[in-house]
Specification:
Layout (H helix, E strand, L loop, with lengths): L3 H15 L7 E11 L6 H30 L6 H11 L1 E12 L2 E13 H39 L3 H16 L4 H14 L6 H14 L4 H11 L4 H13 L3 H14 L4 H13 L3 H13 L6 H13 E3 L2 E2 L4 H17 L1 H4 L6
Antiparallel strand pairs: 1-3, 2-3, 4-5
Helix pairs in contact: 2-3, 3-4, 5-6, 6-7, 7-8, 7-9, 7-14, 8-9, 9-10, 9-11, 10-11, 11-12, 12-13, 13-14
Amino acid sequence: MLSKTKCGALLCCSLLLSSPMALARTQTIQATGVYQMGENDSIAAAKEGARKDAMRNAAEQAGVYVRSYSKTRNLKLTDDQVEVISIQTMQVKDCQYTQDYRNNTLVIHASIEATIDDADFQKRIDANDKIKDLQTQLAQEKEKNRDNLNRKMQKSGNDPYASLLVNEELQKFRQNPQYAAVIHKEFADFANQRNGIVPADIYGRMALLDLYNGSAQFQRDLDKAMEIAPHDPLYYTIEALQTLSTRDYYGAEALADQALRLNGRYWPAYYVRSIAKGFRGSTRKAIADCNTALKRGGENCRYVMNYRAKLQRVFAGRHDFVEFNDDDFQEVIEDTIKGFYHDMEQIKLHKKR
């Protein structure tokens, strides 16, 4: 006789083997598909079409089982995930074809029998989760690498994508300066796509466009440029130009001086300081600064030469002065803004000081 212990063990094994929870539940799916032949279709192509239709219908039924399984385990699957898992876990056991005629057209019917196994669901879900995690990690790594590359280009000022955009928008501005608001938006969109990691002159150009349009965003854009390139005199010169536009002549001179402390040979700063001195009545000093600007790089800039001609007009002789008028002021400021925007590539500094 078997001992009580052995009998108990055998009984437990029998119960486990007979228990429905011990075995994976297999579901059988039956589905049909239809394909109506066209003039150029072969029988083989028509059968394949009918089979695919039956497979789609079977996959929809399989999706019901996958959703039911996911709900019992509090899994949140998207429709795409359900569709993929349904197709992956479904195994077609048999496919039968029949045919008939409808309106003198041959119609192929496919009838398939497929099975799905609950045991495969979790495996597929886990596999898909791993793939999703790997894809997320890869995307994060790509984003990190892209940001690192953008930071290198930002630091060096050598960004081919930014340069391409600059050239395109410069042509647009030359065609019609009234496109300034549209151009500003293009630069802003580019900066947003890069999470703000763009060369300083992108924000510098935006600040000039703000100044041209009288936009309240000027200081925000200029501050971003200065944050990226705090030692570039260009941005202090642009701020001096903005201060000058409010007729704060001494404030504009102070900012121009700050730019010159960063680079004592920076001709745009001499030029803006010359405008401030000229319109506050210090004509001799204005002429001296303007001449310095011309000698150090501004001689090929039409707007600098035009302002120099105005200075000659108001300073007719040693004791003979003529006052500037409002039209002169507005013309000089507007010409300078447009001029700086056109010549940004020549007047910006790439090297850190």
